[in-house]
Write a structure and sequence with these properties.
CATH topology of the largest domain: Gyrase A, domain 2
Radius of gyration: 18 Å
Number of domains: 2
CATH class of the largest domain: Alpha Beta
Order of helices and strands: EHEHEEHHEEHEEH
Number of strands: 8
Shape: elongated
């Protein structure tokens, strides 16, 4: 069953928020989706309060806005089918590597716990989530020249996406660490960048 990681901006006593949440959950089951819901009380998050206080409820699927003010079934379904992933690690609509990294403006909580698993399942080549804070991997190559070539190719992708990992270069190895500095944690864009690096590795471009 496809899983939607939904961040829901709300506040206590918001009847519109309660109605939208109930409608969203009722929508999911009959359409074959499960929802991993994270509720953010904007009264406890200054950045979220500044951005959303006149707009709640606001629902985000990954980094895409699904609706605000009231539940919009058509908009929610469109965004859902673009962003859901299934338990086999297959994209429902699009490959993770085909997406673009989205600049983080702050006020977006980092992915945590069960929200991370569907994204990690999409990656290959040994990526790991470290302390729910960053992605890490180390690639082995036959020599220094090959390792340097991979660093340069990763750097070109990072520049194109405007999202820059930490890279460690050594003889025959390249270490990569990815996280979103703006929120000091992981967002969908970190997994998008990792998937693009996976595509390089799978194509043998690092050797």
């Amino acid at each position: 069953m496809p899983t939607l990681s939904v961040t829901f901006y709300t506040r206590p006593g918001c009847h519109l928020c309660d109605d939208a949440k109930a409608a969203m959950l009722a929508w999911a089951g009959p359409r074959g989706f499960s929802i991993a819901l994270r509720e953010v009380n904007i009264d406890e998050d200054p950045a979220a309060h500044e951005r959303y206080w006149v707009h709640i409820p606001v629902a985000m699927i990954g980094e895409a806005e699904a609706f605000r003010h009231r539940f919009d079934a058509d908009a929610f379904e469109r965004v859902s089918r673009e962003n859901a992933v299934d338990r086999r690690g297959e994209a429902v609509m699009s490959e993770l590597a085909d997406k673009s990294c989205v600049p983080c403006r702050g006020g977006v909580p980092p992915l945590r716990g069960e929200e991370l698993a569907p994204y990690l399942e999409l990656l290959r080549n040994g990526w790991s989530v470290v302390e729910e804070h960053h992605l890490a991997n180390e690639f082995k190559l036959p020599d220094f020249v090959s390792a340097l070539a991979l660093v340069n190719r990763i750097g070109a992708i990072a520049e194109a996406e405007g999202h820059h990992p930490d890279i460690q270069l050594g003889w025959g190895r390249v270490g990569v660490t990815i996280w979103t500095h703006k929120i000091d944690g992981l967002t969908e864009s970190d997994f998008v960048l990792a998937a693009k690096i996976d595509r390089l590795i799978d194509a043998g471009e690092g050797s």
